[in-house]
Amino acid sequence: MTAIRLHSYFRSSTSVRVRVALRMKGLDYSYVAWNLRRREHLSDSYLSVNPQGVVPALEMDGLILTQSVPIIEYLEERFPDPPLLPADLPGRARVRGLAAMIACEVHPLNNLRVLTYLNDRFAADEAVQAEWFRHWTCATLDPLEKMLAGSSRTGTFCHGETPGLADICLFAQMLNNRRFGLEEERWPTLGRIHRACLEIPAFALAAPEQQPDAV
Amino acid sequence: MTAIRLHSYFRSSTSVRVRVALRMKGLDYSYVAWNLRRREHLSDSYLSVNPQGVVPALEMDGLILTQSVPIIEYLEERFPDPPLLPADLPGRARVRGLAAMIACEVHPLNNLRVLTYLNDRFAADEAVQAEWFRHWTCATLDPLEKMLAGSSRTGTFCHGETPGLADICLFAQMLNNRRFGLEEERWPTLGRIHRACLEIPAFALAAPEQQPDAV
């Protein structure tokens, strides 16, 4: 296996996800920082890595992998232990479904480029951006709380006693929430799972403030 | 196997994806329509199916599956033939990555509930909504065109000669684009792949106008 290089930004929620997964799989990697605030992800040098101009991207096995959940699915297939998805098909569908609620419905609406565009196009100041963030986050996390609290398959983590893909997405989102005034008390089950994740080094060390480019 | 019931809305792009996948796998299903314009997806009867209040949801095998890409991953694992993902790991990562560009970065910003909220919150009329739609669609489909046109792994379809998960997401998106004045000439490769998909009955029959609730 060739060396692994992660293209990342400390605060990027999708970068957090991949950092957790790499650590969960016990994989060492080098960290290449791109400062989104300084628009470094739109530089020619980064576009030559990922033409889409978004982080993260992961270089490994002679490949350039993009999109955080597909990257994690690759890591899962390449290094099955410890697993980030359950072995049974219904469990896999449940975990992927929970992860997609965050990956496909919360984060895409609330990342930096969308908030910036709201400001540019609708003169949305920081307060209005925060209102937008909270609206879409609650629209999904409120039912997510109900679904997790109401399922016998929920355990210490989103699915039983083993942290996995859904926990990874939830963890990254809950970190983001704090910056926009959303406290975890609103969602007792999500908050409990988030705190359980924080006790695991692979999660704690993937947090933004632990990264070399943190400011 | 118990009967399969698809909860759907004819125009929903994520519902299109699941309809294509079911047909690709040769699975019969009954169609349960929920009219998003009439807010039927927020009714108690639908929330008892999917507490998140979004379509599609798929009832099968005694489960209620939600989130279109995880539903398709379930169908893929449950009925491996014909495959919707390549067999090799790099190929699987590529197809999932291409699919996620649409599923995680185009569609979430451009669905009906977001456009409605833009109108409610920022008084964005139809023209402004269409501008928003085009902005986010082009932000991802422009680099997607480059990535597909520049890869030797692109064939008649997004990945070689077999239609799969990436084509399913692309097909549904391209149908949506027309409603907002985005013609496929902008993206020659995407347009070519879209037309190749349209020649396959599983795709053509999944289009909005073919559904029982089409108006």
Sequence-ordered SSE layout with sheet pairings:
The structure is a homodimer of 215-residue chains.
Chain A lengths: L4 E4 L4 H12 L5 E4 L10 H4 L9 E4 L2 E4 L1 H11 L10 H17 L1 H4 L1 H11 L3 H24 L15 H14 L9 H11 L2 H4 L11
Parallel strand pairs in A: 1-2
Antiparallel strand pairs in A: 1-3, 3-4
Helix pairs in contact in A: 1-3, 1-8, 4-7, 4-8, 8-9
Give a short synopsis of this structure.
Two copies of one chain form a homodimer. The first copy, chain A, has two domains: 5-82 and 204-210, Glutaredoxin, CATH 3.40.30; 89-200, Glutathione S-transferase Yfyf (Class Pi), Chain A, domain 2.
Describe the protein in words:
The structure is a homodimer of 215-residue chains. Chain A has 215 residues and is of the alpha+beta class. The first copy, chain A, has 2 domains: 5-82 and 204-210, Glutaredoxin; 89-200, Glutathione S-transferase Yfyf (Class Pi), Chain A, domain 2 (Up-down Bundle), CATH 1.20.1050. Chain A has helices at residues 13-24, 44-47, 68-78, 89-105, 107-110, 112-122, 126-149, 165-178, 188-198, 201-204, and strands at residues 5-8, 30-33, 57-60, 63-66. The first copy, chain A, has a 4-stranded mixed sheet with strand order 2-1-3-4, with helices on one face. In chain A, helix 1 links the parallel strand 1 and strand 2 (30-33). The model of chain A has no long low-confidence stretch (mean pLDDT 96). Chains A and B meet through strand 4, helix 3, helix 4, helix 5 and helix 6 of A and strand 4, helix 3, helix 4, helix 5 and helix 6 of B.
